[in-house]
Amino acid sequence: WERARRLPENVNMEGFIFTQPSVGVDARTGKEVLFFASNRPGGMGGMDIWYSFVGVEGDFSDPQNLRTVNSAGDELSPFFETHAQILYFSSDDFQNLGGYDVFMSVKKDKEWSDPENLGYPINTSTNDFYYSIKNNTALITSNRKGSYTKKGETCCNDIYYYEISDTIKTVFTT
């Protein structure tokens, strides 16, 4: 590990929140892309998903608001699955089951599909976010009923996992 370095001012602006980074590779350009959540100016409302291309010299393009996936509410916890070119994120807006739900948007060429709710059992009536996939396992953070804490039925976040079947994997990666 090397010492952490702050990203340049065109990414991090004083006085605003920049959080939850995820890096993937854009299939069309072959470039690395940094996705993150921010309330920086120029958004659609609240926290939005933004992206910036990573240059070969470690520089970053000016961040762009990913308008297709953003709403007047909050969008958080982006995760870009490079192989399938799918961005997973959570939103407290759009058509959801309650709280934050996990959505996906597929990138084809330069276009992003409209956000699609992953539905139950990934999403519940509580907060579901930080969705990620590794091999055949999906991980999610949630405060759904069944928490290990004694502070209340849906008090705190726990980590849950799902084994992805071939049927589900085909639906999510086509």
Distance between the termini: 36 Å
Q: Residue share in helices?
A: under 10%
What's the total number of strands? Answer: 12
- Average per-residue pLDDT, rounded, comes to 89
Commentary on this structure:
By secondary structure, the chain is mainly beta. 5% of the residues lie in helices and 39% in strands. The strands form three sheets. Strands 5, 6, 7, 8 and 9 form a five-stranded antiparallel beta sheet that branches. A hairpin with a 2-residue loop joins strand 10 (128-134) and strand 11 (137-142). The longest helix is centred in the C-terminal third of the chain and has 8 residues, at 166-173.
Throw out a few tags for this protein:
5% helix, globular, 4-stranded antiparallel sheet, 174 residues, 5-stranded antiparallel sheet, 12 strands, mainly beta
Task: Describe this structure in a few short sentences.
The chain is mainly beta. 5% of the residues lie in helices and 39% in strands. It has one helix at 166-173; strands at 18-25, 32-38, 48-54, 64-65, 75-81, 86-91, 101-108, 111-112, 116-117, 128-134, 137-142, 158-163.
Describe the protein's topology.
Elements: E1 18-25, E2 32-38, E3 48-54, E4 64-65, E5 75-81, E6 86-91, E7 101-108, E8 111-112, E9 116-117, E10 128-134, E11 137-142, E12 158-163, H1 166-173
Antiparallel strand pairs: 1-2, 2-3, 3-4, 5-6, 6-7, 7-8, 7-9, 10-11, 11-12
